[in-house]
Amino acid sequence: MKPYLAAVLASIALAPAATAPAAVAPAQDRAPQTPTSQTAPTPPPPGAPQATAPRTPPRLVVAISIDQLSADLFAQYRDKFTGGFKRLLTGAVFPSGYQGHAATETCPGHSTILTGMRPAHTGIIANTWLDQRVGRADKLVYCAEDERVPGSNHDSYTPSDLHLKVPTLGDMMKRANPKSRVVSVAGKDRAAIMMGGHTTDQIWFWNGKELATLAGRPTPPVAQRAKDAIASLVAKPQAALDLPAFCQGQSKPIRVGEQMLGTGRFERAAGDARAFRASPAIDGAVFATAAAFVQDMKLGQGQATDLIAVGASATDYVGHAFGTQGSEMCIQMAELDQSLGAFLDKLDEWKIDYEVVLTADHGAHDMTERQIARAMPMEAHVDPTLAAKVVGPAIGQALGIAGPVLLGPESDLYIANDVPAAKRPAVIAEAVKRYRAMPQVAAVLTRAEIEATPMPRTPPETWTLAERARASYDADRSGDLLVLLKPRVSTIVAPGPGYVETHGSPWDYDRRVPILFWRAGMDGFEQPLSVETVDIVPTLAASIGLPVAGLDGRCLDLDPGLGDTCRR
């Protein structure tokens, strides 16, 4: 861990005002503990094979999301890890996890991780969608805002869990036993909210300027220490970070628009909060803050199993700003590995019996310019004439409709409310005809076509585009049309500072993510076949003896032998 990250961890988690948790015996040395009001694990039938995984519920569930950690990026660096990832690779490894839905953005992806439900059920269909019923001039709605707040818009908003339609694992745990504590800490508000849920005891996130929480919530001393330590870190200049030896081959300059990228090392001027956000430092701060709450609240030491969700967002910001290759991402992966390792080491030091799951909200692939230079000439930026603001007026002119016709931020397109009902079918038909004729478009799906598609039940890599769309379709929020671009067409029209690479497509480079489970004493294994992020909650629920039903995911048996961790 770099000294400045270690200093943050020390100043927050190890402040004199905080006391370390009391020691707890390892799981195998303790009698099984069943939290009050929670159903005891079902014993195996007489003569059934015994599980080799730990049999007692962990005292702390640690759910970690690494924003934009694609399966491809994970595979690229997995043999270079020496810290936290190296430890997790000794557990249950699912390198082909899937965010199965089409809308591979941060908010939908995070909404699946700790709910066990796809975006079609969580209601989180995108980072931002259009709602023409909203009582403000700005009709765009951010997934983690309360648009009812006077004076708000989708860029200047009050963070809220309002739009998440289902409970998270933390909500389920607290409903079963109110003594369970739930904490969520992340580099983005939407990550913290979608993983934390509706009943968090503490929820903190970086808002672009400082560590913040939901409106009306108090700031406990541990959070104030974290705020102060992070503010101090941002206020100081950052010298260029060391370039690991294995990153030497990645450090190659490339011109992207007016920028030269590919050789950066995160040198930062004092007070540059934007550069802080797109650097390994923010992950170090998030993990340090999470450790502080574990220590201060004595999570994992109470009368019921606790949960902490940690959203590490730097990989996404680094990817958007610099791409997935180059020195920048290589350094980010090395630093993330060490920050993750330092966090887990603290939990070990405090002798907490914990179970970890680590995954990602979506994948990504590299910037168009570098892809073209590396044998992918078919890579392209999206043609700006595909935008609704271009296609809509053309449809209106063709059909003799005055005023706006087609609205929408990106893939989800909406027929304007002012379009007469009698003309709406003609607008849809004309839009479908025009978009399907465009060379960069793979598919155009109407609302009726998506609604007629059953929810997929087969392995996620086999899903049709319609099934992928169905998994992130919500009748109340989705558009009247869904326009899906062909593979390797970026939705970025022209790259600029902070935005040269993106995600959000229905293709597997954006859908595939690793899923890793780890607990002390478990027998590790690797399963290369596909699973889904919605399988995480049923799996963790079985581990803690929490009955769940009606979820989109299934329990994954984490015992590689004859036992079955789903039958506890």
Structure, explained:
- With 568 residues, the chain is of the alpha/beta class.
- Helices cover 31% and strands 15% of the residues.
- The strands form five sheets. Strands 1, 2, 5, 6, 7, 10, 11, 18, 19 and 20 form a ten-stranded mixed β-sheet that branches. A four-stranded antiparallel β-sheet has the order 13-14-16-15.
- Helix 8 (221-235) runs antiparallel to helix 10 and helix 11 runs antiparallel to helix 12.
- 55% of the residues are buried.
How would the blueprint of this fold be written?
Blueprint lengths: L2 H11 L46 E7 L4 H7 L6 H5 L3 E7 L7 H8 L5 H4 L5 E3 L9 E3 L26 H8 L5 E5 L2 H8 L5 E5 L4 E2 L8 H15 L18 E3 L2 E3 L11 H5 L2 H18 L8 E7 L1 H9 L4 H23 L4 E6 L8 H6 L6 E2 L6 H12 L6 E2 L4 E4 L8 H13 L4 E6 H5 L13 H6 L10 E5 L3 E2 L17 H4 E8 L5 E2 L4 E2 L3 H9 L24
Parallel strand pairs: 1-10, 1-11, 2-19, 2-20, 5-6, 5-10, 12-17
Antiparallel strand pairs: 2-18, 3-4, 6-7, 8-9, 11-18, 13-14, 14-16, 15-16
Helix pairs in contact: 1-8, 1-10, 4-7, 8-10, 10-12, 11-12, 14-15
User: Which regions contain 5 or more consecutive residues with pLDDT less than 50?
Assistant: 16-42
Q: What is the first-to-last residue Cα distance? A: 38 Å
How many helices does DSSP assign?
19
Major β-sheet profile: 10 strands, mixed
What is the gist of this entry?
By secondary structure, this protein is of the alpha/beta class. Helices cover 31% and strands 15% of the residues.
Tags for this entry?
single chain; 31% helix; 4-stranded antiparallel sheet; alpha/beta; 10-stranded mixed sheet; 568 residues
